[in-house]
Amino acid sequence: MSNKLDFSKELIGRRALVTGGTRGIGAAIAQRLLDAGAKVVVTARSRGEALPAGAAFVAGDVASASGVKVIAAGALGALGGLDILVNNAGGASGFPQRRQGGAQQLFTHARDRSRAEQNPSERRVAGASDDAREQGVQ
Length: 138
Prior knowledge:
Elements: E1 15-19, H1 24-35, E2 39-44, E3 56-59, H2 65-79, E4 84-87, H3 102-118, H4 123-134
Helix pairs in contact: 2-3, 3-4
């Protein structure tokens, strides 16, 4: 009897976004998600050479609100929704007080857009929350 567990099908049907997923640990995480059956989008400021085979790529920077919107729109367009978010993007600078960090902005924006697409009555709310965040209102 083998001691190895088979996780090859544990994520079939799941949709994942990996920030910083074009090289190093991010690429390894993306590959593991792909191996487990997930559909994967990776994002970084540039494509890089180690893009995992089978992953889609969206260029963007999680350090800016506009970059987060581009990433969320690209990931939702490629995947049709989002089940898993892995925030692997690094950064040395902090975020200003009372502002959401890049991963939180990405999650919130993707969640709001996904909900709005599933429920048209929430479209106005999702747009309003984006405007409030851009103005620094919590």
